[in-house]
C-alpha cells in the first residue's frame, strides 16, 4: 500500500490570485482496487464450505490434504490484511481511542455472529431430531448433547466463551485476536520492532516446545467438564493474523520476486508434503515402502511443529511459502488476475474474478452462512446418498448459494433505500 505523502506547506501558487488564474484541474483518477486480497479470501470461502460438509468426497482435494497448512491460514492471513485497511485507517485518522472503538464495535459484531450461528445450527439440528424422520441424531453428530442436557450451565459458558463447541471455534479465535489489536497499535508508537517482539512472545507462550519448555502452553478452555482447549488457540494464530496486518500496513516490506526464493518455496512445499499430508505420505509409502517407513518415524518428532490448534511453526512456514508463490502468480497489484482482451476466455475469467472477489469482500457474512449451509448439505447427502452425481451437485449448489449470499450482503450494505430517485 502506498504511503500518503505529508501535506505540503503553502506556496505562492496557492494564493487566491494564482488560483483564480489557474485552469481547473481534473480530479485524479481513482486507483483500481487491488484484487489479490479479496480474490484469495474468496477462494478460501469456497474451500471452507467444502471442508465443512460432512462426508464430502471433495475434501480429499482441498489444500489441507497436500501439506501442513489449509484454508484456515488463508482466511486468517487475509483477515489480518483486511483489518490493516479497515482498522489501521481508523487509527491513523481518529487516533488510538477512535481506532480502538471501531475494533470493539467489530468485536461486538463478531461475537453476535458467533452466538447467532450457534443457535441457528443448534435449532436446525434439534428440529431434525424432533422430526423423527432420520435414523441418526444430528445433535449428537455435532456433539451438542451437553448443551441440550445441561442448558443453563452451558448457556452461561456459551456467552462467556468458556464453552466453545467444535465447529463453532474459528469466530471466537478471530474475536480474541481482534482484541489484541489495540495493544499492537499502542506498541506502534514505540517501534515496529516492539510489535514483532510482542507477537512472537505471545506465540512462544502458546508454543513453549520452541523453547524446550514442554508441550503445554497458554490456551483457553473449551468446555467446563474436560481439559479440552479451544481448537484454534488465538495466542498462536495471532502471529499469522498480524503478519498479514504488518504486510498491508507496510511494517514488513513486500517480498522481492526472485527465482531462488520461488525455487526454495516450491522445494519446501514438494519435499514437505509427505511429512505434512497423510494422503501424500500414503502415495510415497505405496511407491517406496522403505522411504515411507523412514518418514513415518518423523511424525511423533514433528507433532508439535505441525500442530493446528497452537499454530505450529511448520504450518507457518508452509503457508508463507504458498503465499509467496501466490504473490508471484498474481503479479504486481494483482495485474495477472485482471482479464485482458475481448475474447470469450477473457470474459469468462472476468466474470469468475468478479464473483470470487465479491465472495471475498463479504467474507464474514459468507462464512457464517456457509457454516450453517454445510450442515444442511450434509443432511441432504445423507438422504440422497453420496454418489458421483449427488456430491458434485451438492457442492455446486452450495457454491451458488454462498455467491448469492455475498451479493445479497453487498446489496444490503449499500443501503439502497437511501438512494435518491
From TrEMBL:
PANTHER family, alphabetized? BLL4819 PROTEIN
A family per Pfam: OpgC_C
Domain of life, per UniProt, equals: Bacteria
Composition skew (Low complexity), residue ranges: 10-29
Sequence intervals crossing the membrane: 39-62, 74-92, 104-128, 167-185, 192-210, 230-247, 259-278, 313-330, 393-412
Q: Which UniProt keywords apply?
A: Membrane, Transmembrane, Transmembrane helix
Q: Where is this region: Disordered?
A: 1-34
InterPro entries recorded for this chain? UCP028704_OpgC (IPR014550)
Identification of the protein by name: OpgC protein
Amino acid at each position: 500500500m502506498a504511503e500518503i505523502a505529508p501535506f505540503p506547506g503553502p506556496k505562492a501558487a496557492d494564493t487566491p490570485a494564482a488560483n483564480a488564474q489557474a485552469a481547473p484541474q481534473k480530479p485524479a483518477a481513482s486507483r483500481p482496487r487491488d484484487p489479490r486480497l479479496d480474490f484469495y479470501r474468496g477462494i478460501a470461502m469456497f474451500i471452507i464450505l467444502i471442508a465443512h460438509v460432512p462426508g464430502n468426497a471433495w475434501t480429499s482435494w482441498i489444500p489441507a490434504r497436500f501439506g501442513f497448512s489449509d484454508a484456515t491460514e488463508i482466511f486468517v492471513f487475509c483477515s489480518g490484511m483486511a483489518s490493516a485497511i479497515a482498522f489501521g485507517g481508523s487509527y491513523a485518522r481518529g487516533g488510538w481511542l477512535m481506532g480502538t472503538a471501531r475494533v470493539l464495535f467489530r468485536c461486538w459484531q463478531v461475537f453476535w455472529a458467533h452466538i447467532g450461528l450457534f443457535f441457528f445450527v443448534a435449532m436446525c439440528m434439534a428440529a431434525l431430531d424432533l422430526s423423527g424422520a432420520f435414523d441418526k441424531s444430528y445433535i449428537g453428530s455435532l456433539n451438542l448433547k451437553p448443551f441440550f442436557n445441561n442448558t443453563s450451565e452451558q448457556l452461561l459458558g456459551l456467552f462467556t466463551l468458556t464453552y466453545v463447541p467444535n465447529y463453532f471455534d474459528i469466530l471466537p479465535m478471530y474475536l480474541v485476536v481482534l482484541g489484541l489489536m489495540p495493544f499492537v497499535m499502542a506498541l506502534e508508537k514505540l517501534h515496529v520492532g516492539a510489535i514483532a517482539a510482542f507477537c512472537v512472545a505471545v506465540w512462544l507462550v502458546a508454543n513453549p516446545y520452541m523453547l524446550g519448555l514442554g508441550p503445554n502452553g497458554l490456551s483457553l478452555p473449551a468446555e467446563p467438564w474436560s481439559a479440552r482447549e479451544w481448537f484454534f488457540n488465538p495466542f498462536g494464530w495471532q502471529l499469522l493474523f498480524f503478519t498479514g496486518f504488518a504486510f498491508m500496513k507496510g511494517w514488513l516490506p513486500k517480498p522481492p520476486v526472485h527465482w531462488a526464493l520461488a525455487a526454495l518455496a516450491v522445494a519446501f512445499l514438494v519435499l514437505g508434503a509427505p511429512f505434512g499430508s497423510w494422503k501424500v505420505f500414503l502415495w510415497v509409502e505405496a511407491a517406496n515402502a522403505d522411504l515411507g517407513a523412514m518418514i513415518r518415524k518423523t511424525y511423533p518428532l514433528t507433532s508439535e511443529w505441525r500442530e493446528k490448534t497452537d499454530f505450529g511453526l511448520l504450518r507457518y512456514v508452509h503457508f508463507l511459502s504458498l503465499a509467496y508463490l501466490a504473490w508471484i502468480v498474481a503479479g504486481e497489484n494483482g495485474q495477472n488476475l485482471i482479464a485482458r482482451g475481448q475474447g470469450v476466455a477473457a470474459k469468462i475469467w472476468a466474470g469468475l474474478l468478479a464473483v470470487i472477489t465479491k465472495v471475498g469482500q463479504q467474507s464474514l457474512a459468507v462464512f457464517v452462512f456457509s457454516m450453517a449451509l454445510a450442515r444442511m448439505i450434509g443432511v441432504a447427502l445423507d438422504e440422497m446418498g453420496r454418489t458421483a452425481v449427488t456430491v458434485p451437485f451438492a457442492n455446486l449448489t452450495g457454491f451458488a448459494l454462498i455467491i448469492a449470499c455475498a451479493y445479497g450482503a453487498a446489496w444490503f450494505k449499500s443501503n439502497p433505500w437511501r438512494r435518491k430517485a
